[in-house]
Amino acid sequence: MKKKTSINLLSLLFILFFNFPEGSTNPLLEAEITEFSTSPDSFIKVEINPVASDTGYFSLDGSILETEEGIAYIDSGLGHHPYVVITNDSLLSGKISFNPEGDILKLYSYGRVCILKFGTKGPAPSPLIFESCANAFVGSTDYFWTLDASPTFGSANDTHAEGPPWGSGGLGNTQIVINEINVHSSTPGGNFFELYNKTDSSIDISGWQIVVDSRYTIPSGAIIPGKGFYVLWQIDFPPGFDPTVTADNVYLFSADSIRRDQAGWSHDHGIDTSFIRYPDGDATCFTGYNDTTSIDFEDGIPTPGAPNVRVTEVEEQQNAECGVQSAECRLVQNYPNPFISETVIEYSLSEPSVVSLQIYDIQGKLVRVLTKAKKEAGYHSIHWDRKDESGERVSSGIYLCKLSATLHGGSASGGQSEDFSAIRKMIVLK
Fold first, then answer.
1. Residue 13 class from Cβ within 10 Å (0-12 exposed, 13-18 middle, 19+ buried)?
2. What order of strands is seen across the sheet that includes strand 248-253?
3. Which residue has the higher pLDDT, 5 or 428?
4. What pTM was estimated for this model as a whole?
């Protein structure tokens, strides 16, 4: 990243007190940024309102464009059309660039500053490759910006009107929300995004789009049952759909191309940690763009297609099982659950014990013995890779995990009766 350069005092004085030739006036009363793109080249469209000009002449000569990547002076001779398209070729001081994940764009022009924040830096979406981000209303806030698959640089925008939930736009006007985000998974199933239906009735989401750097269109016939889930797995990510672990955004568009929900993160939440709404569908803000503004979200245990679980709940549970808050034997619910390829099973012992941890199918048939050995008191965990005793992957369905413990450190091969046993239900997906 280039080192940010500050605008010096002389530059600001030039902007504020620039004098036109005698007998002329400054026709540039307002200059609004109305469309921009970050790839393959950086474009900015500036809309000019030459209300004080009888000749139609206007100029941005001497104005300054700034991003977090640097600054540049705008060249002269930008034309007579009300839509001026600024490219790197028309910047006097050379090329300027955006951070495509998020940036702050500022236009300093004759005593006025126009500021636009997008991606992880503001509510306006980050443009996709070969697309733009456009504003339907001159003078409106960043909340009314939206993605435009057909850029209209040099002419009027044709985008949908959007806005925050207290406005007249689409944001927040939805019963389907982004419910869980996992972009740093270590399991074979990989990363995923989960949607949730807040209503009691089934909703057809055919043609809806989940957007992260590119568009994933939900197939025809996709229906989310009431209080149900829809999970987009990494294996189905389209080309260019590449969420960044440290900072990125996800947007949800309905089939009519209106943005309904969004969320963002601005740091790595950790391996196998999800960014979740809790409880499911708890949505009060639809304009989050980083960790601070995505106020409905918090860290959770990966539970694709199942109710969300907060990390704090698991940590409290683990502390209790390790004897910090209590000295009990306990079998914790596996996570993720449901799962596709691998899950983690955790348990705790109040004292040294002979432990047997076994997997059964719903018919009661033994599928796998995960461990049968003497264990010390405290917290333990083990992974199940969905395989049976012969090394074959088991079919999807419901399975039971049983923990049996003989306390006081008896022999692993002894015949002592169980002092503790517990069973948890696990769900294996296709």
1. exposed
2. 215-217, 209-211, 248-253, 259-265
3. 428
4. 0.69
